[in-house]
Amino acid sequence: MNEISIIPLGLVPEGKKVRIVSLRGGHHLQNRISEMGLREGIVVSIIKNSLGPVIIALENSRFALGRGMSMKILTEPIN
Hints:
Blueprint: E1 7-8, E2 17-23, H1 27-35, E3 43-48, E4 54-58, E5 61-65, H2 67-70, E6 73-77
Antiparallel strand pairs: 1-6, 2-3, 2-6, 3-4, 4-5
């Protein structure tokens, strides 16, 4: 049986690629996330995830997300 692990973006290690599966939070936060192009099904790479903001790459763009916001974006690993 194939078990899929869902993990918040803020807990994904640097250098990994993940697919966004769900956005949590209020209407305003979901709009802000969507306006950046981050939607369900999108694949992003984790550039930096240590102290401070989480830096991700989406195609040729990079985004810095605050810790709280990154914990509301649920992802699954890409093999």
